[in-house]
Every structure is written in structure tokens, then in C-alpha cells.
Amino acid sequence: MIIKANENRMDKFNPQIEVEPDGLFTPVVREWSLEKYKLVGSYCDIFTNGMKNKWDQLVYIDLFAGAGYAKIKENGKIFKNSALLAMSIPTPFTKYILCEQDEERFEALSERVKRDYSHLNCELIKGDSNVNISKVIKAIPPFRKGNTLLPFCFVDPYSLNLNFTTIQTLGKNLMDFLILQALHMDANRNFDTYLNEENTRIAEYLGIANWRELFEKDGVIYRKDFVKFLAEQYQEQMIKLNYQEEKYMHQIRSNEKNLPLYYLSFYSKDPRGVDFFKKVQKRVKAQLSMEF
Ligand SMILES: C[S@@+](CC[C@H](N)C(=O)[O-])C[C@H]1O[C@@H](n2cnc3c(N)ncnc32)[C@H](O)[C@@H]1O
């Protein structure tokens, strides 16, 4: 069976939604976040539009949801972030599960959801998503034959503070992921810290306790290979969970110096998910080339 997202429909969703200040807490982000919003917003749009007639329930999970709005440092404009973009698409998900650790961001997100999206089925979970994963799983509605469910999970941490066990637990069943991998911003910058035998961050991120042994080549460690090593090991770990073998990574670079910052990596167990992601990448690249 071939399922195609209807790319030519007239109501193509604009994943960059500027809003007025509303007096609630609004964190400041850099302008390259807009490319992230384009990618995740467009993916949600294509996903629900393409899957609405094939699945009874479509669930959006945002493990690092933020405050709902974000202010661009470079121009002071305010935009909806990942969570509220996912709630603004023409064909909404049937349920939203939004997680946020920071008290101020959580309160602002809750207020915005209550004010503007009370018509949608949304559950907010406060706290560390690496710890709260059983609460997230409990929030996913029951499903069975005749009442099927397909979830999409956006994972957007600032750093490598994401335990592989979190992804492993969620990825046991069917679940597509878009994961921000802070390989340049965090891994490269903190290389020396992570190399320290006592530091457990990379072991937890990869879910590989002896990663240092795998990284060493003939007793030597090459800093220049760190990002590639992490990306490859992550991919291997996802393949073990039955995700597609090929890598689908969208690189985000800084606007002023064009330096690599992070990747938005897509994982699906189904070739159709991958097909949607490739379409989204094409759409985002076309939009970006029109802007410059
Ligand atoms: C990069 S921001 C992403 C926000 C949002 N996804 C967006 O589109 O702008 C990361 C968010 O995750 C929150 N956060 C950091 N660590 C967390 C954790 N362990 N569990 C849940 N939220 C966390 C931060 O407070 C911040 O709001």
C-alpha cells in the first residue's frame, strides 16, 4: 500500500507563526530555532494529514516542550514553539502529551494551552522527562485492533541530557522520533569533560557503558572523530530497536558564521515515516532558499 502526503493541497501549513506578546514568560532563543520550527511544524502537518484516515488515534509527545512561545534574540519577534505549532496544524493530533521541567516555562505553557487550545485533548507533565517516562507512557491512550494509535515524539533538549533508556522505553512499540542531537553545541565543546572517566553523560546518552573503549583506536583518541562517533553509535543503538538503517539527519547551522550547531535526526520503523521526513526536508530547504 502506498500512502502519499498530499503535497499540493491549498492549505499548506505555515510552520512559522508570529504572535503578539501576551505577558506570559517567553524565553529568548537564537534565530536558527526558526528552521527547527519549520521542520517540526511541517512534519506534524504532513504526518497527521497523511495518516488521519489510516489510524484511529494520532498522538504528539513533546518531551522538552518549553513555554509555548519563544522570542528571537536577533529581531525581538515572538513565535509559537514546537508544542503550540503541533497544536495549530489544520488536522490536529487526537492527543497531546507535553512535558517540561522548568516551573516558569511549565506555567506559561499551561496558561497558553488553556487559553488557546482548550478544544484539544492535552495532558501536561511537569518534571524531568528522563525520570517521568512511565507517566508519559501512562498518558498514551489505550489502543487495540479496531482503535489503532500512532505516536510521534519530538525530543528537543538543550544538550546531551537525554538518556538512551528514555528513547528505548518509548520506542518499544511503534513510535516515530525527531531528536535534536546537540553534537556540536554540547559534545564537541565539552569533549574534555566527557572524556573524564568519572563523567557518565555519554554513557547515559548512548546507553553504552564502555563507549570510551569503542572510541579509542589503537589506544589513541581523536577529538575530530567525536561527533561522527556519537552519530554512528546512536544510529546503531536505534537500529537495535528496529529503526530504519539509513541515517536521516538535518543539520542546523548558525546564521552569522555558518557553523554546525546540531542535528535534527529522524527515526521511524516504517519506510513511510521516512518518506514523509524526506518531503519535509525538501519543503524546508525550498522555503529557506526563497528567503535568502
Ligand atoms: C531547547 S528548549 C526546547 C523548547 C521547545 N521544544 C521549542 O520548540 O522551543 C528545551 C526545553 O526543555 C526543558 N528541559 C530541560 N531539561 C529537561 C528535562 N530533563 N525534562 C523536561 N524538560 C527539560 C527546558 O526547560 C527547555 O524549556
How are the elements arranged and paired?
Elements: E1 18-19, E2 28-29, H1 33-51, E3 57-62, E4 69-72, E5 78-80, H2 82-88, E6 95-100, H3 103-116, E7 122-126, H4 133-139, E8 149-155, H5 164-170, E9 176-181, H6 183-188, H7 191-195, H8 201-206, H9 211-215, H10 226-240, E10 249-253, E11 260-267, H11 271-291
Parallel strand pairs: 2-4, 3-6, 3-8, 6-7, 8-9
Antiparallel strand pairs: 1-5, 4-5, 9-11, 10-11
Helix pairs in contact: 1-11
Bound molecules: S-adenosylmethionine.
Structurally, the number of domains stands at 1
**How many helix segments?**
11
Whole-angstrom Rg: 19 Å
Q: Which fold name corresponds to the CATH topology?
A: Rossmann fold
In percent, how helical is the residue content? Answer: 25-40%
Assigned CATH superfamily: Vaccinia Virus protein VP39
CATH class: Alpha Beta
What about the largest sheet?
7 strands, mixed
The mean pLDDT is 92
Strand order of the largest sheet: 7-6-3-8-9-11-10
Distance between the termini: 39 Å
Q: How would you classify the helix and strand content by structural class?
A: alpha/beta
What does this structure look like?
38% of the residues lie in helices and 18% in strands. It is of the alpha/beta class and 292 residues long. It has one domain: Vaccinia Virus protein VP39 (Rossmann fold, 3-Layer(aba) Sandwich). A 7-stranded mixed beta sheet has the order 7-6-3-8-9-11-10, with helices on both faces. Strands 1-5-4-2 form a 4-stranded mixed beta sheet. Helix 1 (33-51) packs across helix 11 (271-291). The structure holds S-adenosylmethionine (SAM). S-adenosylmethionine binds next to strand 6.
